[in-house]
Design brief:
- By secondary structure, the chain is of the alpha/beta class.
- The chain contains seven helices and ten strands.
- It has one domain: Vaccinia Virus protein VP39 (Rossmann fold, 3-Layer(aba) Sandwich).
- The longest helix has 21 residues.
Length: 244
């Protein structure tokens, strides 16, 4: 199912636009440790601003909340396991999922983001890790949420990251993956400037193909289109997929 919605902004991706304006155990290959540290350090520098600006980012956003509610309902039907929020930042979305009844682990590579999350949301567990090497057991999760956490991955590393998502999911578990959409299918990705590091937009059909290769079946797709006066002028895709 594909749905297009006009004028529904996503706070974290608006923040990415602000940044532009401001300036598996077997991973083949993993992002170099130096790059991970650099990205984490850059997010450390803006952690307080990010946390304060988007603490209430779900207020007045029924589509955003609806996606998360649908994800939570599906995850609750899956076999037992944790739910991970990858690239959780200061933890506001992880806390929302916790309020929906999910046992959530927030994962981020920014120590400052995680410190804010632990202080604000003590009911949520947090861990510092890379999305390409999660350090979680095979099949230990019934849900994986990835809201724009793949944007800094070079194109050649996206397949291994999606395979890592699939590895930690239990059969029958669910992935909700959100990313910015490129304007044409060829090439299937497009780099854009970002204050933290080079970031990428993706063609949804290409991502869906990589998900299938990783053993994840797309069940629904939502495409959000910006209005001309929106700060964010990228389309945004939200893909729901289930592990076979």
């Amino acid at each position: 199912m594909t749905v297009a919605i006009h004028g529904v902004a996503r706070a974290e991706l608006e923040w990415c636009q602000w940044c532009v304006r401001e300036s598996r155990r077997s991973i083949v290959p993993a992002m170099p440790e130096s790059d991970l540290l650099a990205v984490g350090a850059a997010y450390d520098a803006v952690a307080a601003l990010y946390a304060d600006q988007f603490r209430d980012s779900l207020d007045g956003r029924p589509v955003e909340r609806g996606l998360l509610t649908a994800f939570a309902e599906l995850v609750c039907r899956a076999p037992a396991g944790a739910v991970v929020d990858l690239g959780c930042g200061p933890g506001h979305i992880a806390a929302h999922l916790h309020g929906l009844g999910l046992p959530v682990l927030g994962v981020d590579q920014s120590a400052e983001m995680l410190a804010i999350g632990r202080a604000r949301y003590p009911e949520v567990r947090f861990a510092r890790s890379s999305i390409t090497r999660l350090g979680l057991a095979d099949g230990s999760c019934r849900g994986v949420l990835s809201r724009s956490s793949i944007i800094h991955l070079p194109p050649e590393q996206l397949p291994s990251a999606l395979a890592e998502f699939a590895r930690v999911l239990v059969p029958g578990g669910w992935l909700l993956l959100t990313f910015s959409v490129t304007d044409a299918p060829e090439p299937p990705y497009e780099p854009f400037d970002h204050r933290v590091a080079t970031a990428y937009r993706w063609w949804p059909d290409h991502v869906a193909s990589l998900l299938r290769t990783a053993g994840l079946t797309e069940t629904a797709r939502l495409i959000e289109n910006p209005e001309p006066d929106d700060r964010r002028q990228f389309r945004v895709a939200s893909v729901l997929a289930q592990k076979s």
